[in-house]
Amino acid sequence: MTNPKKTAMDRFLDTVERAGNALPHPATLFALLALSVVVASFIATHLGVSVQHPTTGATVTPVNLLSLQGLHRILTNLVTNFTGVAPLGTVLVALIGIGVAEHSGLIGAALRKFVLAAPQRLLTPIIVFAGVMSNMASEIGYVLLIPLAGLIFHSAGRHPIVGMAAAFAGVSGGYSANLLIGTIDPLLAGLSQEAARIVDPSYTVSPLANRYFLAASTPVITLLGWFVTERFTEKRFADSNKTALDGSAESPSTSELSLFERRGLRYAAVASLALTLLIIWSMLPVGSVPAGGFLRDPSTGDLLNSPLLSGVVAIIFLFGVVSGVAYGIGAGTIRSDADIVKGMSNSMSTLGGYLVLVFFAAQFRGAI
Predict the structure, then answer these.
(1) pLDDT attached to residue 323
(2) Among 45-49, 315-319, 332-336, 351-355, whose mean pLDDT is lowest?
(3) Which domain covers residue 361, as residue numbers?
(4) Can you state the angle between helices 146-155 and 123-133, rounded to 10 degrees?
(5) What is the pTM assigned to this prediction?
(6) C-beta of residue 243 within 8 angstroms of C-beta of residue 187
(7) How far is 127 from 166, CA to CA, in rounded Å?
(8) Do 229 and 128 form a contact (C-beta atoms < 8 A)?
(9) N or C terminus of the chain with fewer C-beta within 10 Å?
(10) Which residues contact 140 (CB under 8 A, 6 or more apart)?
(11) Using DSSP, how many helices (H) and how many strands (E) does the chain show?
(12) Is there a domain that residue 309 lies in?
């Protein structure tokens, strides 16, 4: 049997796949960039390169990192470069709270309820949209939604790989977009702040700095993921043999929510609503209600530069813990404080790769 002739789009996608697979790990890229800065400092020093600081107008000359003084600087700053990275603390704190919501089963149950309730004709866009929104809980979209989408497409008589591809498009393509704030926003704000402070040491970047752009990107990515999946991805599997659907045993991952899970979602909704109302009350103008406005700027009453925005990471932490514990109590997945701490610990155990990446990125930044 001869293989069907590949179209131009097929060949293009194959090229993109090979190029992507050939790229080194991001941590390796940052390590290579840091080494390139060391070499560039040596070359720039011997060429007598200098520039004017855009803010102060002072003349800035390069530091030869291969000199004795430069090597001492590398050795003494290796640890502080890492511990001084702004996004490090924000990501750790946010993920501690999100870890409780994930460990209790809240995020998985909410995603299943959302996806399983999708009408068949809108199955693809809802899968992509759920993938975009899943970055509120960091990597949960990769772990839960992608295999779940394959099972749901399979049960709908469509190729499961197409469903997994749609979910992957939403999770990866929309990893920085969201209608709400997630753990990625403080991370990116911290990286932007570190870069901005090279020019202005006092500059502060809010985690909400890109909120309008990210919210507007969400429907755009959803529509594009829907179009590409239906127009290109599904056609690549049109002639593939589909695995026969065994209706005798329903997969637990695609089954309806249990009574305990539904009760847990109700508890989580009530707890989240109560916390939301508390935050809204704290945003009211000072004097409008007794003790109101305590999240506004204490001197100006402003919301743009206030504890509310600077404390966004703490708010993410609170929502994750409060809603996760409420769900766990309702669903019976949290029975003691040990379960809460276990959820926090499990979220920390997933950060090994991130910490390695941050370490080499910090050395690159410190070398500049």
Answers:
(1) 92
(2) 351-355
(3) 94-239+254-367
(4) 170
(5) 0.64
(6) no
(7) 7
(8) yes
(9) N
(10) 102, 107, 108, 111, 134
(11) 17, 2
(12) yes
CB atoms within 10 A of CB 277: 10
pLDDT: which is higher, 203 or 239: 203
Residue 172 lies in a domain: yes
Summarised one tens digit per residue, pLDDT across range 39-49 is 998 998 888 88
**What gap in Å lies between CA 218 and CA 132, rounded to an integer?**
7
Q: What is the pLDDT of residue 248?
A: 41
Residue 165 neighbours by CB distance under 10 Å: 26
CA-to-CA distance for 244 and 235, rounded, in angstroms?
19
Q: Tell me 121's DSSP state.
A: G
CA distances 302 to 210, 211, 277, Å, are: 19, 18, 19
Q: What is the pLDDT of residue 349?
A: 78
272 domain residue, yes or no: yes
Angle between helix axes 160-173 and 146-155 (nearest 10 degrees) is 150
Kindly state the average pLDDT of the residues 350-366.
81
- Both tokens assigned to 283: 């945003």
The number of distinct structural domains making up the chain is 1
Q: Kindly calculate the radius of gyration of the chain based on its CA atoms and give it in whole angstroms.
A: 25
Burial of 231 from C-beta contacts in 10 A (0-12 / 13-18 / 19+): exposed
How far, in whole angstroms, is CA 175 from its chain's centroid? Answer: 6
| pLDDT band for position 231 (cuts 50, 70, 90) | confident
Residue 61 falls inside a structural domain: no
Residues across the chain: 368
Dump pLDDT digits (tens) for 70-127.
888 888 888 988 888 766 777 788 778 888 888 898 877 887 787 777 777 888 888 8
- What is the C-alpha to C-alpha distance for residues 176 and 210, in angstroms, rounded to an integer? 10
What is the Cα–Cα distance from 58 to 18, expressed in whole angstroms? Answer: 47
pLDDT at 286: 61
